[in-house]
Each structure stands twice: as structure tokens, then as C-alpha cells.
Specification:
Blueprint: H1 4-42, H2 44-49, E1 53-54, E2 59-60, H3 63-94, H4 97-112, H5 115-134, H6 141-166, H7 169-177, H8 182-193, H9 195-211, H10 214-219, H11 237-244, H12 251-281
Antiparallel strand pairs: 1-2
Helix pairs in contact: 1-12, 3-6, 3-9, 4-6, 5-6, 6-9, 7-8, 9-12, 11-12
């Protein structure tokens, strides 16, 4: 029989877990209760596939915001993933110990910077730079992608580096003993062995990119129109909710909750993907 203190701790831990699940269920119930009526009234196709967002005239098409979110998130991955994985490889396999000891805390500090600071940086530096180089207003999906790429770097670098370091040393020693050089060993042995953690870092980074709000509001222009290119102004789902929820009411507010449902489902799918990755690695 377990000692009484241990049993009390187990009960407290169980209650903590149940509380987390209960809070999650409450959030789900609240969001779906507020957002579902719009889907019922106007139809799922009209909401998700509608190209016009005009609450004053009862047009609640979320497609421009969905595509805006996709443009920004995809751009951030295109920029951030190679940089993040490259930095992780450098820290784990190439960098001298003293240099790595300087870079790692800097990456940790980067993760702690508030998102609004990244947004101000983009507003003051990136937007004018993009305007000067490519023309237009500078507020664009490209500026949002660059800001988000910087923001997701700590997630990708930290998890990828840990995954690379977790690869058994015998793999590396065996490859080098067979005549492969250091880079060939990294490319053909270490990275494939660490792919589970690397893919997880990318998915978690994507989740961060999709859910970001303040930095995006400051640099993307917030125009609720379908973007034609990366240089067009866009509005993400999170920005749409943040900008309009303060004065929305009635069906308008319900439509914003519908946007929240779309975000919620997408993030849930991403998290589910993370859970499935370890099962696929050994295939």
C-alpha cells in the first residue's frame, strides 16, 4: 500500500490534469457556441469560401483572411526553416563549445522578446526597406513572413538541436569509421535519425506563426482582400479578430468567433500531427 503523502500527491496531480482538460473543454464550448450559429445561417461554404468580408452588409467571407494567414505562415517557414535547421546543425555539430555557449543564451533571449517589439522593428525597418526595394506601400505578406520567421527561429533551433544531440554517438562514429566525412555523416546519418524532432520543431513553429497577432497587425497592412502576391497587403485571421472584436456585436461578433473556430481547428490538427510523428519515424 502506498504511503499517505504519496497518495495525496497523486490525487493532486490527477486534479491538476482534470482541471486542464476541463478548462480546455470550457474554451471549446464557449468558442463553438458563439461561432456555430453563423455557419448554420450562412453555410460552411459561404463562410470559408466567401471572398468578401463586409459585416455591415452581412458578408462574412473568411477566405481572404485564410489565404492571408497561409501566405504569411508559408513565407515564414520558407525563410525560417532553413535558417533554424542550419543554426541547429551548427550549434550541435560544428560550433566550438565556447561559441555555442554564447549563441544558445542569445537564442533564449530572442524567444523572450515580446511580439509587439518584433512588430515595431518590422514597422520601422522592414516595411520601409521593402517599400524602397520592391515598391508599393511596404505593408505586405512578405514583411509579415520575415517578422514571423525571426519569431519562430528559437522554437525550430532549440528543438532541432536537441534532436540532433540525441542521436547516439555510435551512429556518427560508425559513419566516420566507414570513410564518410563530417558533412556526409550529418547529411546521411544524423539528420535522418533526428528527423522526428526536426519535423516537430517545424510544426510547432508553424503553430506559433499561425497564432501570432500583434506583430502581424503592425506590418501587413490589414486589408481584407485576397492577396495576389507576397508584396500585397494582407489580413490574417488573428489580426481580423483583434482589430474588429472591440466594436463587433451580433452576427459580426459571431463571425469573428467563427474565425476563431477555424484557427482552433487548424491548431488542433497541427498538434495532432506532432503526436503522430514518432509513430511514422520508424516506417
Amino acid at each position: 500500500m502506498k504511503p499517505r503523502p504519496e497518495k495525496i500527491v497523486e490525487i493532486l496531480l490527477l486534479l491538476s490534469a482534470l482541471t486542464a482538460v476541463f478548462v480546455f473543454m470550457l474554451i471549446c464550448l464557449f468558442i463553438f457556441n458563439k461561432g456555430i450559429p453563423v455557419f448554420y445561417k450562412y453555410g460552411l461554404t459561404n463562410i470559408l469560401g466567401g471572398k468578401i468580408w463586409d459585416p455591415a452588409n452581412s458578408s462574412f467571407g473568411l477566405l481572404p483572411m485564410i489565404m492571408g494567414t497561409f501566405y504569411i505562415a508559408a513565407g515564414s517557414l520558407i525563410i525560417g526553416v532553413p535558417l533554424g535547421i542550419g543554426c541547429a546543425i551548427f550549434l550541435a555539430e560544428v560550433a566550438p563549445r565556447q561559441l555555442a555557449g554564447i549563441i544558445r543564451p542569445a537564442i533564449g533571449l530572442l524567444a523572450g522578446i515580446p511580439s509587439v517589439v518584433f512588430g515595431f522593428y518590422g514597422l520601422v525597418v522592414l516595411v520601409p526597406l521593402i517599400k524602397e526595394l520592391f515598391g508599393g506601400a511596404g505593408f505586405s505578406a512578405l514583411s509579415g513572413s520575415i517578422v514571423l520567421a525571426i519569431m519562430i527561429l528559437p522554437t525550430i533551433i532549440t528543438i532541432s538541436e536537441r534532436s540532433i544531440r540525441a542521436v547516439p554517438k555510435d551512429y556518427k562514429k560508425g559513419s566516420l569509421a566507414l570513410g564518410a566525412n563530417h558533412w556526409q555523416t550529418i547529411k546521411t546519418i544524423i539528420l535522418p535519425a533526428a528527423r522526428s524532432g526536426i519535423v516537430t520543431s517545424v510544426i510547432l513553429g508553424l503553430g506559433r506563426a499561425v497564432g501570432e497577432t500583434m506583430a502581424i497587425v503592425l506590418v501587413t497592412g490589414n486589408v481584407a482582400l485576397l492577396p495576389g502576391s507576397a508584396l500585397d497587403p494582407v489580413r490574417s485571421l488573428t489580426a481580423n479578430i483583434a482589430i474588429e472584436m472591440g466594436y463587433a456585436s451580433g452576427e459580426h461578433a459571431s463571425a469573428l468567433f467563427a474565425a476563431g473556430i477555424v484557427l482552433f481547428v487548424f491548431i488542433l490538427l497541427l498538434n495532432s500531427l506532432v503526436l503522430l510523428i514518432p509513430q511514422k519515424v520508424g516506417d
